Structure formats: structure tokens, C-alpha cells
Amino acid sequence: MEIFHNFGQIPNTMGKAIIHFDLDAFFVSCERRIDSSLNNRPVIIGGTGNRGVVTAASYEARKFGVHSAMNMKMARQLCPQAIYIRGNGHLYGKMSQEVTEILTQNLPIVEKASVDEFYADLSGMDKFFGCYKFAKELRSKIIRETGLPISFGLSINKTVSKVATGEAKPNNQINVADGCEKTFLAPLSIKKIPMVGNQTYKTFSLLGIREVGLVQKMPLERMISVFGKNGKIIWERCNGIDDSPIKPFHERKSISSERTYGKDTFDQEMINTTILAMVENLAFQLRRGNKLTSTVMVKVRYSDFQTYSKQIKIMHTSADHILIPTVKELFQKLYDRRVLVRLVGVKFGGLADGHYQIDMFEDTNKTVNLYKAMDKIRDKYGDHYVRRAATLGRGSKTIGNQGNPFDGRPPILLAHRHR
Fold this sequence. Notes:
The chain is α+β, with helices and mostly antiparallel strands. It is built from 14 helices and 15 strands.
């Protein structure tokens, strides 16, 4: 089934044509692609402990009130019959890349807004194909080649297209013809407009405003007096005005990993294992993305929710044997042994393109070849297939690839000594 909005008007073929693609319940769809028994059943992905949060929920689970960022304990109360899955970051990244490659091969400019969201500029294609017809064929190609459901919205700008995609879901499409933006948006809840979060919505509710159409009738000056400079942006978006450009290159500035323990702990061995597993996984992610880090940060949150962090600048690297001692040293300077630990985290910033270079005074070809061999196996079988023995303690669970990438095969263990 398709939904086509043109409100009786013919689209202006000379205007802008911006499309927004969104993979439906993406993490759930990835899990269903490898396990069809999950189809049509409530599925919830996220931390499996009571302190965990919901990362994604299937549409079947959402009917019970479950949504992303919800406390997992609450989700279990709302939908106890759901299938709970910890998640598999490696799998989701791989399937996202499949969609990215199809889009970049078929479109001149693509912006990857997130792992499951994409924008593209189709302006001018009406002269040759017809933007809507081309978009439908491209959506069909993605579904056919990846097996993943995907929706899109097509309009003259990013805001209207994103809202249209939300209205098209699940697994459908909407075209909002040029000149029909205000008519399309008017009956929708103000919460559908990007930038309108819970607090902003509460303010609108106090003003008796819940639909976009009422904002369209408000004077711009009134919006600015209530919401400040954001009031102008919200008013423009409600009126279908958005000049945001497509940004084809999103340079990632940092990568990080955090672990919240199911129970606050003093266990030094478990904490060390957690940190080591984080560094090993993040270093692998750097090398896989041909990135080097120059800033290392460690974070600790205690049982009283006080959070502290330390960071240090280093020479650009992606080598475990350099990053692990650095992170350990930072943690020891930060850690207060008198207070229970609730969360630990590691972050690598200052990312730059590049491959790990041999240190002519310390490294040997054996070191570099070891990393290449390890990473080649991880790329083929999953993040956890090659691991240091020191990362197999209780503190390493939930770090990196959460699934079972080696299908029951035991991981290769390394007793590699760090300088």
C-alpha cells in the first residue's frame, strides 16, 4: 500500500526535492532477519538487567506502552510476554552499511543522520525519472536486497520529509507536494515537529496548543517571546520552512563505551576487566574505521550518582598496548576506593584518519601483524571471537558485540603482555 499526498496540486518539478529514509524498528528488524521466529512477536532490545534501558522495541511491544529509553524493569511489567534480546552492535552496523551502500550507489548526495536514518537530495530528477517514482523504486530495491523494512517521506525540505516519514510508518511512503507543506502539517500533534521535546510540549500545552495548525496561526513575535530564539525555528518548521542543507560528510569526533553494573560494586577485579574489555573493543573499532585517537578519557559514577572524569592527550594511535596502560593509569588516579562504583566508561576523542604506525623504537612487525590477524578474524566472525584472556571475567559482559558472533565456537584467547 502506498500513501500519496498532493492535495490536488501538481508538484513543482523545478523546486527542491529532499527525501528522508528511516529503517523501521531497525534493531528489531536486524534480529528478525537472522531469526524469523521473532516475526510478529513483541521484541525488546536493550540491557537485560533491571537497571538497563530499552534500546529498541518492535511495533508489537509498543502497543503495550514500551518505548526506547524506558527503564527495562518497567518494560517487563508492561510487556512480560516479550522476547528480550541484549543486542548485537556488530550486526546492526553491518546491516546499516548494506543500506548505506545501496543509497550511495544510486544517489548523488546522501547524509547519514544516524545508523538507521538517511537524507538525500533528489532535486532535478523530475526532469528524467520523477522523484516520487524514483524514490519508490529505490525503497523497493532496499527491501528486496536487504530484507529490511524501510519508510520514506519526500518533500521540499528535511523537516517536512522527516515528519512525513513518521506518518508513513511502518514500511510505507508519503510524498508531500510542493506548496502543500502547511496543509500536511496542520492537523498533526506539535510533538511531531523536530525540536519539540517534552518540556517544550508542556509549555505549548499550558498555552492550550497541541496541534501544529495553531502554531501556524500564532504571530512569530509571540513564539519568540515564549521560547526565545528557538521559537523562530519551531515556528518556521511548523510552517514547513527549513533551509537546512544535506550534509554528506559526518565526521565522527569520538567513540565511547559505558557499563552500568547491575549492583554497585567495590570489586576491583571486575572493574578492571570491564575497562580492559572496553578499551580492547574500542581500539578494534578505531582500526576497523581507519581512525586514530589523540584524547583518552575515563569516567566513573559512584553509588551516590556523583560522576567524575579525567582525560589526557596522547600521540595519535589505535594500538591496544598503548591505550590499555593509559586508561588504567587514568582510572587509578580517578578511582575512590571508599565509594561503591555504579558505572565506568571509556572515551576516545580527537579522532583522525589514519592507520596504526609502527614505533621504530618499541614495536616490531610482529605487533602490527598480530593486530591485523586479530582484526581480520573479528571482521569475519564478530568482535568477541578473539579476546585477551583478561577480558573474560564477569566485568566484560555487555561490552562490544552483545550477540553470539561465533555460533557456539569458543573464542581464541590471547595472553598478550602489555608494556
